[in-house]
Write a structure and sequence with these properties.
Layout: H1 3-10, H2 14-22, E1 29-30, E2 36-37, H3 41-54, H4 59-65, H5 82-139
Antiparallel strand pairs: 1-2
């Protein structure tokens, strides 16, 4: 498939696909006219690349990791080195720390929302009471 179709099927820009190729993350064959041609498996490869970027990995780490991943054909790719496993473990720990930080931030925000909601409710009740008192005074 050509680069435009790969971009359409994966939701990744052609520019990003060219970058992936420059970084050695994605391989394309060239036609005699110089056009890029990608195999069907490139769709799954691009999805894997996107997932790894979303996890916060850089292209150098992704380049080392991709050969270790199973592709859609189910073929085993067991090229992981102890060093790569250490790097990936460190990345996972970094992600765990980020998740913990986000959970703490969410808890603080929940407390602020609860406090603000309580103050807003109290203010609303006070306004209602004042309006009721004013209506009663007018009626009298």
């Amino acid at each position: 498939m050509r680069i435009g179709e790969l971009a359409r099927r994966t939701g990744v820009s052609e520019r990003s696909l060219r970058y992936y190729e420059q970084q050695g993350l994605l391989l394309a064959h060239r036609t005699p006219g110089g056009h890029r041609e990608y195999p069907e498996a490139a769709v799954d490869r691009v999805v894997h690349i996107q997932e790894l970027f979303a996890a916060g990995l850089n292209s150098r780490t992704i380049q080392k990791l991709l050969p270790c991943m199973r592709d859609a054909d189910g073929g085993p790719n067991e090229v992981a080195t102890p060093r790569l496993v250490e790097e990936l473990t460190a990345q996972r720990e970094r992600i765990d720390r980020m998740i913990a930080d986000l959970l703490r931030s969410r808890d603080v925000l929940d407390e602020v929302i609860a406090g603000a909601s309580g103050r807003a409710k109290a203010a609303s009740e006070a306004t209602s009471e004042a309006e009721a008192a004013a209506e009663a005074a007018e009626a009298a």
